[in-house]
Amino acid sequence: MPGKYDDCTKVTDLCVVEATTYGYYPNLGANAFFLAIFAICMGIQFFQGIKWRSWSYMIAMTVGCLGEVLGYAGRVIMHSNPWSELGFQMQIACIIIAPAFFSAAIYLTLKHLILTFGPEHSRLKANWYTWIFIACDLLSLIMQGAGGGIAASASTGSTANAGSHLMLVGIIWQVVTLAVFLVLAADFGFRAYGHRSTHSIAAVELRRTLKFKLFLAGLGIAFVSIFIRCIYRIAELAGGWGNSIMQNEGEFIGFEGVLIVVAVVCQTAFHPGYCFPQMYQRKNNAGPLDLETKELGSRERQV
After folding, report:
1. How much is the pTM?
2. Do the beta carbons of residue 69 and residue 35 sit within 8 Å?
3. What number of other Cβ atoms are within 10 A of residue 47's Cβ?
């Protein structure tokens, strides 16, 4: 913290742990657990990406998991020394931005759902979703990353607050982007379901499979988890450095750590390469819808 604690580098009688930004020793067990889970998911995502050639999804997920690993490594460092500048910089910069990569992975799927179940039911062209929402996500990443960097390296209270405010704007922007995405995705879902009798045989068979239903459920759980986490982060940062929410580790573990673990596990366990293969069959084979549809033509099936 700026002021009389500027020269503190470790906990002493004069540099008490209560004077740190978080006011506690980060829990070693919880943070080591999160680090391990994200490291495992990162490895699985990497091999899934190679197997299914889901390059864009793999990049988004592995980079996000790497950010979480580095962030929780920083918190492990802070368990030994809550005044560690390196640990603080690692966790504030990495944990704050990593979930934006997971939301980007979610955005990538909508285009292919639209192409599979009927572009005519979408308000926008399928390709626009990827460009619009990834661009918005990138802007959120830039603001959060820049804010985290400023806050982590700040030497004065005003500079630290400026970084905090920039991170806050970035997370608010992320929430707005997620909300708009939800509205458009739900609108397409209702319209496509209402016209399900016009779906191709391939689309009908796909939506009846358990793995595709699990994919949609996992996608929904991941989305809600990320959304709630962002709401928590807004409340945390809005109170300024060292506020009661920021110094409540239980809330951090529940609303940041657990929720993002749930999101990443869902996105890993119900990977689109296995649960929604049309997403990558189309990309890798340049088919108009998917391999089955290419063979069956435009035949329709009443359900």
Report:
1. 0.90
2. yes
3. 10
